[in-house]
Amino acid sequence: MTDMPDAEEDASPAAGEPDPNPDAGPDASSGTRPGTGDAVEPAGLQMSTVLELVGKVVAPASLLTAMFYFFGYTREREFYRHFGVDLGTVGLSTTDYLVRSAGVAFVPLAVLAVLTAVALTVESALTAGLARCTGRTGVGAACLLATTAAALLAVAVAGLVTPTREIGSQPLVAPIALGSAALVTCYGLALAERHAATPAGMRRALAAGRPTRIGALVILIIISIFWVTANIGAARGRVAASTLERTLVTQPQAIVFSRQKLYISGSGVKMVPLDVSNSRYAFRYNGLRVLLHNKGLWFLLPAGWQSGDGTVLLLPDNDPEIRIDLAP
């Protein structure tokens, strides 16, 4: 009696017949014929994944508070530096910095939101267009992405190493180039990972490093946002200080009364002796303007104060020998 063949032997193709499911290798999953290498899968850098990670990192209230605190700090630092006042002397609170950061942070965050919406809109069309790149066209597209990323990175590095006082005095081009270089680099590597012509070993390596790339991308984007906003905050502070200097004459007045002569000087300041028989105070000083009142101190400026040729007067608000009145 003849034994029946095993099921596995029945399932194998007969000699001379084509295998209905040949091992097509990596090209089988991409829908291309082996060896052609002329197609790109339409999935490039997933912007939704990046945005989701950014949201998870930025969402905590502590980080948002730190961001807005930093924005307000850079603005106030440059504002008071214009008048020769160290920010530590002013004694602003965390709430002060957060309130002052609202105007600074709005512009970069609004621009970031618009750019994100545009990126999500054009990503699918761009990836589909690159998917049709074959032969020399594909090589040219890859070279273009690599060259763009390298140029942007060079601009960012130049901005970092350029000698400046602080990061807030850097131009806006460098931080924008840093974030853009990270985006272009990760996008190009994602396309290379899914390109049919990419060697299998390189594909596996790129796939294994995908989480690291996305994490690095999120970090670099957050750094570029901080950098851009620091520059904007510093610029806003300098503009606000210059505007106040030009309009000091029109600002509300601070009239200082004192029992003793205070020897206050400055452009526009005038001392008027008073009749002590009819007044508690012996001197009155006109021509002063308020820069700030905080932590028990008045920061006063002469009405004719000019950058590089003026001083800031500090007076306590609890000295019984001094009275300060405000007038329009």
Model description:
There is one protein chain. The protein has ten helices and six strands, in the order ααααααααααββββββ. With 328 residues, the chain is α+β, with helices and mostly antiparallel strands. Strands 1, 2, 3, 4, 5 and 6 form a six-stranded antiparallel beta sheet that branches. 53% of the residues lie in helices and 12% in strands.
List the helices and strands and how they pair.
Elements: H1 7-11, H2 47-58, H3 61-82, H4 87-90, H5 94-100, H6 102-131, H7 135-161, H8 173-194, H9 200-208, H10 210-246, E1 253-258, E2 270-273, E3 283-294, E4 297-302, E5 313-316, E6 322-327
Antiparallel strand pairs: 1-3, 1-6, 2-3, 3-4, 4-5
What are the salient characteristics of this protein?
single chain, 328 residues, alpha+beta, 6-stranded antiparallel sheet, rod-shaped
Largest sheet: 6 strands, antiparallel
Structural class: alpha+beta
How many helices? The count is 10
Mean pLDDT: 74
- Count the beta strands: 6
Tell me roughly what share of residues is in helical segments.
40-55%
Query: What distance separates the N and C termini?
Result: 119 Å
Uncertain stretches of 5 or more adjacent residues: 1-45
- Beta content comes to 5-15%
Shape: rod-shaped
N-to-C order of helices and strands: HHHHHHHHHHEEEEEE
Radius of gyration, Cα only, in angstroms? Answer: 33 Å
Short description:
With 328 residues, the chain is α+β, with helices and mostly antiparallel strands. It is built from ten helices and six strands.
